[in-house]
Amino acid sequence: MAMLEERTTGGVSFGLTDDQRALRDLAHEFAEREIRPREREYDEHSTHPADVLAKAHELGLMNVHVPQAYGGLDLGAFEGMLIGEELCWGCSGIGTAIAANGLGHGPVIIAGTEEQKRTWLPRLVEEALLTSFALTEPNAGSDVSGIQTTAVRNGNDYVLNGSKMFITNAGHAAWFTVFASTDKSKGHRGLTAFVVPADADGVVVDRHLDKMGQRSTDTSALSFQEVRVPMANRLGEEGEGFKIAMKTLDFTRPGTAIGAVGVARAAFEYAAQYSKERVQFGTPIAMNQGVNFLIADMATKIEAARLLCWQAAWMIDNGMRATLQSSYAKRFAADICMEVTTDAVQIFGGYGYMKEFPVEKLMRDAKLFQIYEGTSQIQRLVIARELLMPRD
């Protein structure tokens, strides 16, 4: 398992504490023992990995950012990434199913009142429950100002109507964080966030979506038909939904990026090993410059991507605004994951294109990192905005 050696210079450490190493090792052993033996079957049938999630929950590998006051481990963004890389090294479909809970309940941690936190967070620690982040819609992906789902005040309730698309774990979630418009004339400034129980009247999981990759993560379409949501379930004030969503994504994007690093690392390891075993013209193909240069570039990109993720997580854990660095990490890690997995298939040659070899799946899984939680193109827009129009 390639990892930076511990070294300290100028007050900046690239090493891990003993606790962090133990946490990473625990996640790696879990991925090796519980995830990899199941990844091919679950991918083939697009199976929800309920048994694996239950075991991850039992070991404390889920909901790791829930504060101690509500029964959680209160781990930082950095520790979450150490876990995420290993889980996605095992399988990014299963790893995403585990990690996406943090995205679902993140808005409650960020914007919830004390009462809301005590209502929704402890049960996640006590039971292997899932939550979902319901922002994207059929006609509103990157442009959240186009959200059509509405929340209309009615007495002490809001009435939700609309639909959501590409919602992770939605078919198995206990509750959703839903973003809806309470004032469509204000665009994204009119969005408001709500916690909506999955069993509320009018909540419908319309269909499970059949994906190219990361198939063992459930992705579904949702609809809300006259769903009554108590005022007590509103997160923050009316119109604060966009701010809450962006703060949540700033926190989770490095974690998503590190998942891409885990997939790229898995592809690199398979390709490097195969290049030493595959003999052509009387010598291992690893001795061919056309191959070993690919291997060298793959390793370099993975190390660089990991460092960007570490930087963003370090800033978050130290209370700094990390919008720019989170987008650096997400953009670069997602793109190099696609490159590295494609090169891994190339090194395997014809065998790499066959489903019986692991790199075929890794290449399919890689593509989604360039799309969800802000496409690579949207990350470039964020980066450009942050560089050219910086906040004071």
Write down the domain tally: 3
- Give the CA-CA distance, first to last residue: 41 Å
Computed Rg? 21 Å
Report the top-level CATH class of the largest domain: Mainly Alpha
Could you tell me the mean pLDDT? 94
Tally of strands: 12
Q: Briefly note the CATH topology name of the largest domain.
A: Butyryl-CoA Dehydrogenase, subunit A, domain 3
Order of helices and strands: EEHHHHHHEEEEEEEEHEEHHHH
Poorly predicted runs are 1-10
Approximate strand percentage: 15-25%
**Helical content class:** 40-55%
Strand line-up across the major sheet: 3-6-7-10
Second-tier CATH architecture of the largest domain:
Up-down Bundle
Shape: globular
**Main sheet overview:** 4 strands, mixed
Helix count?
Answer: 11
Helix/strand structural class: alpha+beta
CATH level-four homologous superfamily name of the largest domain:
Butyryl-CoA Dehydrogenase, subunit A, domain 3
What can you tell me about this protein's structure?
With 392 residues, this protein is an alpha+beta fold. The protein has three domains: 8-126, Orthogonal Bundle (Butyryl-Coa Dehydrogenase, subunit A, domain 1), CATH 1.10.540.10; 131-239, Butyryl-CoA Dehydrogenase, subunit A, domain 2 (Beta Barrel); 242-388, Butyryl-CoA Dehydrogenase, subunit A, domain 3, CATH 1.20.140. 51% of the residues lie in helices and 16% in strands. A hairpin with a 2-residue loop joins strand 1 and strand 2 (12-13). The longest helix is centred in the middle third of the chain and has 37 residues, at 241-277. The chain is globular, with a radius of gyration of 21 Å. It starts with 7 loop residues before the first strand and ends with a helix.
